[in-house]
Amino acid sequence: MNLESPKVTVEKSSEYLFNALSDVKNFEKLMPENIAKFEVLGDDIFNFGLKGMPEIKLRLKEGVPHSKVNLAAASDKLPFTLTANLDAVAENTTSVQLVFDGEFNPMMAMMIKGPITKFIETLAENMGKL
C-alpha cells in the first residue's frame, strides 16, 4: 500500500527541514490534535499513539542530506516506511511530500487506509510548525 500526502510548501530551507526532521523530538510538533501519547525513546526512535489506534514506534532509518528523511516502523507487526521528500524551491522555500509505504493484507489495508491518509496529510500540513 502506497499513500502520498499532498505537496505542501514550507517557508523554510531544505537544510533546516532536513535537520528538524532528523531530530525525532520534533515529530511531536507535527502530530494531530487527537494524539494520546508521544514519547522519545532514544536519539533515533519515538513512540506515539492516536486515540482509537494502536501505539506505533518509528525509527529514523536514513536520510539524504537536504532532500529525504526516511523513518520505518520499529516493529515487524506493521512493516512500513514513512519518507519525507524535500525539494528546495528557493533559498528559504521547500516543497514537502510524505510517502507512506507498507505491506498489509487486503483487509488490514482497507481498515487503515483512511486513518493513515488523514494522518500523513496532517503531518504535512503541520510542517510549518517546525
UniProtKB/TrEMBL annotation:
- Which InterPro entries is this protein grouped with? START-like_dom_sf (IPR023393)
Q: What is this protein called?
A: Carbon monoxide dehydrogenase subunit G
Organism whose genome encodes this protein? Flavobacterium dankookense
